[in-house]
Write a structure and sequence with these properties.
The chain is α+β, with helices and mostly antiparallel strands and 451 residues long. It folds into 4 domains: 89 residues, Elongation Factor Tu (Ef-tu), domain 3 (Beta Barrel), CATH 2.40.30.170; 67 residues, OB fold (Dihydrolipoamide Acetyltransferase, E2P), CATH 2.40.50; 103 residues, no CATH class; 64 residues, conserved putative lor/sdh protein from methanococcus maripaludis s2 fold (Beta Barrel), CATH 2.40.420.20. It has 7 helices and 25 strands. The strands form 6 sheets. Strands 2-20-24-23-22-21 form a 6-stranded antiparallel β-sheet, with no helix packed on it. A hairpin with a 5-residue loop joins strand 22 and strand 23. 26% of the residues are buried.
């Protein structure tokens, strides 16, 4: 028998397919559903935020725009010397640099350097031969005033004293009595001889006070040592004869007057007074140079101590005084120094203020500046110093409580704040030096509130 299937059965099997393939499309449908749900939630949140922003009240907007409340600012307490250090250029010079004119030779057409020119940089001392003018020596003598006369036998006074001081220093005289007598004359003769020149001489005045010839001689009167006699200068001045022109009382014969006595003296043209010695030659005339006369300066001398000269603006100089400690910095290092003087200068031709001049010298005499004359160095000045060591805090941390008193707000170890009473020593460039009124209440490293 032959069996026939209906078309519907065949069609049903073809449509249904294999039962094993019935679940292949379901995971993709789940992913699509989950993605759609998340996207919808994000859109909902964004829409909600936008609507909230649009419908905020003005008060809410102002509150949202304002800054958060300020937090206190603290600064650490330090310690030290409150000072304003400033640097200025300075020039190395001698303590005093002075120009001098050499004495002119008397009764000469001109005065010319004929030998022994001073060497620049050499040191001269009281009693030295400075130079030779018109073949005669010019001696330098430490004196606060210029010489005003020839000095010789019988003279007394301050000029004799400074001359004797130079002779004592050179070892030619034993003492000073401000009287030019025989011992001083012998000392002067030796002084000239050792320098290589004959001492000029003149006749000693007679006992009656009259002076015989005062013409000088190129020879030395006496050359014996100043130590050969223990008699004073004044006692020897009475040895001149007063018997000139008398006759012998027994025979009636005329008695020859004693020979005139001549002594070495020092012409004023061969003496040069310098107020500060020893000194260093800075500028000097050469052989053939005409000196004296109307010339204001023939040579320049400086005291043998080097210092630094600094020009400071008037406002800065007001905070610097003699005795202040500074630092001099040169190419060879630095040295502690002190301010010797602060000299104000005269106004300029238009009446304007000119810088003040500081003179700075090494703090210890044994220290050298480490620089030569004319060299530029740096001088560091501590301006407006509060003397002594203090606690240092920002000026804004101090609340005033009257003249020289105040409080600072200190942060305690537990984070709380406490006021500390302080005395105020001074302020400089935003910092203030203070000291706690009660010991132990404020120390270096503590935090204080600023502002």
């Amino acid at each position: 028998m032959i069996l026939l299937r209906s078309g519907s059965d065949r069609d049903e099997k073809e449509v249904g397919g294999d039962p094993r393939d019935s679940g292949r499309g379901r995971p993709w449908r789940r992913r699509l559903l989950i993605g759609g749900a998340v996207g919808g939630a994000v859109l909902l949140v964004a829409a909600t935020w936008s609507l909230a922003s649009i419908f905020q009240s003005p008060a809410q907007r102002e509150a949202n725009a304002s800054a958060p409340p300020p937090q206190p600012v603290f600064a650490a307490v330090t310690s030290g010397v409150l000072a304003d250090k400033r640097s200025y250029p300075g020039v190395v010079a001698y303590r005093s640099e002075t120009g001098f004119a050499l004495p002119a030779a008397p009764d000469a057409v001109r005065s010319v350097v004929t030998g022994r020119p001073p060497s620049v940089g050499s040191t001269i001392d009281s009693g030295d031969v400075l130079t030779e003018v018109n073949t005669r020596p010019v001696f330098v003598v430490a004196s606060p005033f210029p010489f005003f006369r020839d000095i010789g036998f019988g003279d007394e006074g301050a000029d004799v004293r400074v001359l004797q001081e130079a002779l004592v220093t050179r070892g030619y005289l034993n003492g000073i009595d401000e009287r030019y007598g025989a011992q001083t004359a012998r000392a002067v003769a030796r002084w000239y001889k050792d320098a290589g020149y004959p001492a000029p001489t003149r006749q000693r005045p007679s006992a009656n006070g009259t002076s015989n010839s005062s013409n000088s001689s190129s020879g030395s009167g006496t050359s014996s040592s100043s130590n050969s006699s223990s008699r004073s200068d004044t006692s020897e001045s009475s040895n001149s004869s007063s018997n000139a022109g008398t006759s012998d009382s027994t025979t009636g014969a005329a008695v020859e007057p004693p020979a005139p006595v001549v002594d070495a003296f020092v012409p004023v043209s061969e003496l040069m007074a310098l107020p500060s010695l020893p000194g260093v030659v800075i500028t000097a005339p050469v052989i053939g140079a005409q000196v004296g006369g109307d010339k204001a300066t023939d040579l320049t001398l400086g005291a043998n101590t080097l210092v630094v000269r600094v020009e400071l603006p008037e406002a800065d100089a007001a905070g610097v005084a003699a005795g202040d400690v500074v630092t001099v910095v040169s190419k060879s290092g630095q040295v502690d120094a002190v301010v010797e003087a602060v000299d104000a200068q005269a106004p300029d031709e238009n009446g304007g203020a000119r810088p003040s001049v500081l003179r700075v010298a090494p703090k210890n005499e044994s220290d050298a500046l480490g620089a030569e004359r004319g060299e530029t160095v740096t001088v560091q000045v501590l301006n407006a110093v509060v003397s002594g060591e203090f606690l240092i805090v920002p000026t804004t941390a101090v609340v005033g409580r009257g003249e020289g008193r105040g409080v600072v707000v200190k942060r305690q170890t537990d984070g709380s704040l406490a006021e500390v009473a302080v005395t105020v020593a001074g302020s400089l460039r935003g910092m203030t030096a203070v000291a706690a009124e009660d010991a132990g209440t404020l120390s270096k490293g503590d935090d204080v509130r600023v502002g």
